[in-house]
Amino acid sequence: MTLRPRLLVLCTFAVLAACRNDAPQALGTLEYDRITLPAPAAEKIVAIGVREGQQVKAGQSLLQLELDRTRASTEAMRAQAARQRATLAELEAGPRAEEIARARAELAAARAQANDTRIYYNRVRQLGAQQLMAASDIDRARASADNAAGTARALEAALKELEAGTRIEQIAQGEAALAASEADVAAQQVTLGKLSVVAPRDGLVDSIPYKLGDQAAVGQPLAILLVGQPFARVYVPEPIRANVAVGTKAKLFIDGKDDAIPGTVRMIRTEPTFTPYFALIGKDAARMSYIAEVLVDDKNAKLPAGLPVRAEFAE
């Protein structure tokens, strides 16, 4: 046998030996949990304190948005709440003694006026009966007397209202208005605090989509962090799905790492999907697969996201 055919046979045996690895396996990528920090308001970015790929601690400042407009709105809402607070205090205190005294004086004057007009009407009515005064003058005197009596009754009712004090329904309305104003202030204060974007957890800055001076729309991501332990998102082929469950142990193989990394399945979906192109292995091209997440057991492992990974599951 010549050298070339002998090498061909050896290569064939090597390929067959490699294909005899019957350990259940799945391909995927190394990932982290992602936290997106959205823009709380459409304000200009005035400072960026970190760079992509930088490790950050919880509470560390990431970006600073312009504060002027939101701060002014907050102060305006505080002033509105103060006005509502004063209005409620006025309702609870009720009418002043001076107002009640003035109402009593006005009522006394109105009663005197009503009594005077009634006396005059009674006098001219007698003259009318004797045909000594025109009927139109008598009618005007009667109208004046009735009007003065009505005015006195209205002032008497107003005095009773003042003496009774503020209605409980008005106080309840004042309390509700004050609560709404204070809630608006609290919400605006939260928005003002969010303009200083800080890291909610320890993690790695994965992306800062906007640059200094940009103005992102409300809800757009200002920063994306990678947090927690790394995990492998793999596609489990349908033939081995029944043997993989939450808690199943696995070995993770990553290029550049000589030894396998132990892991534990923390999630596997029940809905199947088609195997992606990078996870195809021979006949797997037509198979259904199930997305699973294998958590790296080593809490101190420092592994970059996006690396291709191969997971072998325990029998």
What does this structure look like?
- This protein has helices at residues 3-19, 68-93, 97-129, 135-164, 168-194; strands at 25-38, 45-48, 55-56, 61-65, 196-198, 203-207, 221-237, 249-254, 261-268, 273-274, 288-296, 308-313.
- By secondary structure, it is α+β, with helices and mostly antiparallel strands.
- Strand 8 and strand 9 (261-268) form a beta hairpin.
- Helix 2 (68-93) runs antiparallel to helix 5 (168-194) and helix 3 runs antiparallel to helix 4.
- Residues 78-190 form the YbhG-like alpha-helical hairpin domain.
- Keywords: Coiled coil, Signal.
- It holds the Pfam family HH_YBHG.
- It is found in: Cell envelope.
CATH overall fold name of the largest domain = Elongation Factor Tu (Ef-tu), domain 3
Helix vs. strand class: alpha+beta
Distance between the termini: 42 Å
Query: In percent, how much strand structure appears in the residues?
Result: 25-35%
CATH superfamily of the largest domain: Efflux pump adaptor protein, beta barrel domain
Proportion in helices: 40-55%
Q: Estimate the global geometry from the Cα principal axes.
A: rod-shaped
Number of E-type strands:
12
Number of domains: 2
- What is the top-level CATH class of the largest domain? Mainly Beta
Taken in chain order, the helices and strands follow as HEEEEHHHHEEEEEEEE
Task: Average the pLDDT over all residues and give the rounded result.
Answer: 84
Number of helices: 5
Strand count, sense and barrel status of the largest sheet are: 6 strands, antiparallel, barrel
Describe the strand arrangement of the main beta sheet, using strand numbers: 1-7-11-9-8-12
What Rg do the Cα atoms give? 43 Å
Poorly predicted ranges (pLDDT <50, ≥5 residues)? 1-20
The CATH architecture term of the largest domain is: Beta Barrel
